[in-house]
Design a protein that fits this description.
Elements: H1 3-14, H2 18-40, H3 43-60, H4 71-90, H5 104-123, H6 126-137, H7 142-149, H8 153-171
Helix pairs in contact: 1-2, 2-3, 2-4, 3-4, 5-8, 6-7, 6-8, 7-8
Length: about 170
Amino acid sequence: MEQEELLPLLYRIGRGEQKAFASLYEKTHRHLYAVLLKILRQRDLAEEALQDAFVQIWRHADSYHRGRGTVLTWMVSIARYRALDIIRYKKVRPEQSLEDDVSISDNTQIKDEQTKLYHCIEELDNDQRQAISLAYFHGLSHEQVKHHLGSPLGTVKSWIRRGLNNLMQCLSL
């Protein structure tokens, strides 16, 4: 899946084109599902997270910016956030299911990545953490985050942008 192939689809999705969304889904859902299954270790939860991720991709296609990575990287990050949200809210641990055999080193790596992500999120200032949580974990638009936090739209966008930059630096991406 090349950027040149996915980017036009994402722009068309941002304009509400359902055929472009179906095409993007067909080209990427297996990859995203594999990522989610590796994190969640349960097929039903991975399917739930995949559906949630594609809802977010549909809703936020117009917010994608080339400078933040490839379309697929952006989509994987949305999927991972959905998986982490499920882990947090359903109190699921990746090692609970034996449905798919993952090596101990893979499981350890996942735990290490999750621990690092949680640490990096905790390092954000409160405004950035809240804005990112509402936008990425709860799927609110920037406009909805603005209303929820009672802050100007430009401020909310700045909190999110700076928070994501801080996360990327913390995670050494």
